[in-house]
């Protein structure tokens, strides 16, 4: 397996912000525009911004057409998805990546945008799982934002994370895959499905019931997504829910239960997901994962 990394951004490059899922207004995106301009970039706000149809950033055809335009336009060197929510799976199969393949560019987002990250990976292209424009100015998010800038401009990414009691030590090398657990599960069997064999999987989610997290892990395991992993990185499982009769295991314990069936290294507590500490990861990039008593280290090979 090998994937193609788009060229790094340079000052004066033009980038676009689009809403493939939930709506975002120009007012909500103003801080992100200022940040990107502060990085020396020129910003285009796509036609799917500043409009809405119910929760979405416009009708499906509007969001699809806008994203297609930015993917195809050779003047646009990166596409930022304004926010997640829900909606990317509704438009993904209508997108054509033929012109994108002639001149690949960075696509960045997380949460619902895991669909786009995985769809690109299945076609051999790297993309960025990282903080989205709506969250650029969130309190405590400066380090995450800087990691996104480094990823976009081709600077090295290397992370160190404290030890976690559920970690399993070991060293693994492989391409990064993953993102939002609930999205990954719904992509199984589709044109956006992710091949996890020999790769390092990272997972995160928000607002999910503990039993639902268990059900999704059962599904991933039954479909062979865990058996062939080189390594597993567990991010934030923010605001987990439970029933009146508790499920009995917290999210990290649920993941530990299924990972224990295999021998790959496992790193819990990684700063990725729906919290201010959401460090940029390049989906498809070859990395080395080291887990030992001193903690976790993840770096580009």
From TrEMBL:
Family: Belongs to the peptidase S66 family.
UniProt cross-references to Pfam families, sorted A to Z: Peptidase_S66 (PF02016), Peptidase_S66C (PF17676)
UniProt protein name: Muramoyltetrapeptide carboxypeptidase
Domain of life: Bacteria
Domain LD-carboxypeptidase C-terminal: 173-289
Alphabetical GO biological process terms: proteolysis
Xref: CDD domains: Peptidase_S66
Active-site feature positions: 111 (nucleophile), 204 (charge relay system), 274 (charge relay system)
InterPro entries with a match to the protein in the record: Carboxypeptidase_A_C_sf (IPR027461), Class_I_gatase-like (IPR029062), LdcA_N (IPR027478), Peptidase_S66_N (IPR040449), Peptidase_S66C (IPR040921), S66_fam (IPR003507)
MF term (GO), any: carboxypeptidase activity
Gene3D superfamilies per record: Class I glutamine amidotransferase-like, LD-carboxypeptidase A C-terminal domain-like
The LD-carboxypeptidase N-terminal domain, residue ranges: 15-130
Keywords: Carboxypeptidase, Hydrolase, Protease, Serine protease
């Amino acid at each position: 397996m090998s994937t193609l990394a788009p060229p790094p951004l340079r000052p004066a490059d033009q980038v676009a912000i689009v809403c493939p899922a939930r709506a975002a207004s120009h007012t909500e995106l103003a801080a992100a525009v200022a940040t990107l301009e502060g990085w020396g970039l020129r910003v285009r706000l796509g036609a799917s911004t500043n409009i809405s149809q119910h929760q979405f950033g416009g009708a499906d055809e509007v969001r699809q057409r806008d994203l297609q335009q930015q993917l195809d336009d050779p003047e646009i060197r990166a596409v930022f998805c304004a926010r997640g929510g829900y909606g990317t799976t509704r438009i993904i199969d209508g997108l054509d990546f033929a012109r994108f393949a002639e001149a690949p560019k960075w696509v960045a987002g997380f949460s619902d945008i895991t669909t786009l990250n995985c769809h690109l990976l299945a076609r051999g292209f790297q993309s960025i799982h990282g903080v989205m424009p709506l969250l650029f100015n969130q309190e405590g998010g400066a380090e995450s934002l800087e990691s996104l800038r480094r990823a976009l401009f081709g600077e090295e990414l290397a992370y160190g994370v404290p030890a976690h009691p559920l970690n399993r030590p070991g060293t693994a090398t492989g391409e990064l895959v993953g993102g939002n657990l609930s999205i990954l599960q719904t992509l199984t069997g589709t044109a956006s499905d992710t091949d996890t064999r020999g790769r390092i999987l990272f997972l995160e989610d928000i607002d999910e019931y503990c039993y639902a997290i268990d059900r999704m892990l059962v599904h991933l395991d039954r479909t062979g997504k865990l058996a062939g992993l080189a390594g597993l990185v567990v991010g934030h499982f923010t605001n987990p829910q439970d029933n009146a009769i508790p499920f009995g295991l917290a999210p990290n314990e649920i993941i530990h239960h299924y990972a224990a069936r295999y021998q790959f290294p496992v790193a819990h507590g990684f700063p990725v997901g729906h919290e201010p500490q959401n460090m940029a990861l390049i989906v498809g990039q070859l990395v080395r994962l080291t887990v030992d008593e001193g903690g976790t280290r993840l770096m580009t090979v």
